[in-house]
Amino acid sequence: MTDDRLLEPFKDDNLVILKNPIANARFGLSVMQTKVLFEAIAFFKSNQELRTMRLYIKEFLKNVGAETNNYEYIAKEIDQMTEIPLRIQRTTKKGRLDYLKVQLFSSADYKIDASGFGFVEIEISDKLKPYFLEIAEGEFFYYHILNTRVLKSKYSIKLYLFLKSWKRKGQVEISVTDLRALVEVEPNEYTEYRYFKKRIIESAKKELSEKCDITFEYQEIRAIPGNTKSEVVKIRFFIRENKETWNKFREKRELEIGKAEPVKRLQPTKSVSVPAIKIETVPQEIVEVSAIDKRIFELFRIFEPEAEDNEIGIYLEGIQADRVRVLEVLLFAKQEKAKNITIKSIYSYIVYGLKNNIGVGLAAKENKAKTKGAQAALNRQAQQLNKQIKQWYEIDFVYVYNQHLIDVGASADNEQKNAYVSHIQQLIADTPSLKFMYYNPDQTLKADELRRGLGAVLTTQRGETMESLFVEWVQKVKGIKVELFEGAWRQVTEPLF
């Protein structure tokens, strides 16, 4: 059982606590990924009840002294950590050594908060927690997170952790082969010991001496003791306190970046209630959203249904990428989703897609398909309208036209009417079977039929036809222009000039 007094220093939010096996673990991480991991460890040590955290990228880059503001790069680096297992050495009950593979992060989603700041929401793997949260059992070590933040080399970080875990002993001996594996040097890198010594050991010694709370000296152990020409097979490290230099460096560093509160650096993703405040609305400039942005928003919400336009817009401004390329990546992501391929974070996927030329040409292809589809839709619409025009002509306008002829005939003078009646009587005399068309059974004239007939004669004399009158009627009543083309009615497209 650990003495409570020993746990008192661990309340510091900037403290990283690790079990000793972590110092020997195979990370397989870049420098930036390693620093992200320890930021997460420091956070979850102080927030053990939480499963997720927010890592604000701008603050993180400032804290680690990064020389880049490339959010795409950081988002991609963190997203890759969901696929990287940590190999932790452990001892079995039978005393044998083996390795446990533990997933670093269960998920890592790049998002934008309500204020427009980019962050990565990280969910830690449950299997990893015992190695840096449950310190009551097993040997562990701890350090201030600034130590690993400021180191530029991943080799220096790994060597620092290893030596820190042995600090209580004061010294540790390790074979060159195991040391190469520990700091994760590639098999084809620094194959000659002199280069390994210069690039790894001496470089780490310089960095630790200038920036960290420990430093070291080391002794080379050769295959043949006393023979300076024989191969160096082991290194014995002597670990020393470096408090005076460390304190000065820490003060200088805090003055450079400002002492940021942990809550600004890392924030829990749990709901909090805040008192209501009165907000006075002010007129805002209306910004018209382009068609391509609307399409991007639409595709984006396939993966992030709750994302709002302003949130997506801020993200797009942040990555400063060509909108067409973003659209193409999203179109490709949509295709992948249709194949049941999981995309954990569309924010990170866009960054990845932009860098790897994913989806190139899909926007033009979609535009071509849209144009073709739009033309087909227009053709269908035109066909439907032409069909409607035909219906107007054959059904709706027939009544209108007949009434028009009756009105024209009724408005004729008596001379025209008498002449037309004489014409009809002569027609009936020549063809008696036509009499029923103009006379009722009681032998009285059908007035409307005579008016309609006279109206037809008069409109023809005026140069009017049923078709020309229909064109006028459609424009007046339906608001469109039509024409009879090759025996079929169609809408007339207005010329541009």
TrEMBL record:
Extract the SUPFAM superfamilies matched here. Winged helix' DNA-binding domain
Q: Name one GO biological process term.
A: DNA replication initiation
Q: Which UniProt keywords apply?
A: Coiled coil
> What InterPro entries does this protein's entry cite?
Initiator_Rep_WH1 (IPR000525), WH-like_DNA-bd_sf (IPR036388), WH_DNA-bd_sf (IPR036390)
Recall the GO molecular function terms of this protein's record.
DNA-directed DNA polymerase activity
- Name residues in a coiled coil: 368-395
The residues covered by the Initiator Rep protein WH1 domain are: 18-164
Q: Give the UniProt family note.
A: Belongs to the initiator RepB protein family.
Listed name of the protein: Replication initiation protein
Q: What is the lineage of its organism?
A: Bacteria, Pseudomonadati, Bacteroidota, Cytophagia, Cytophagales
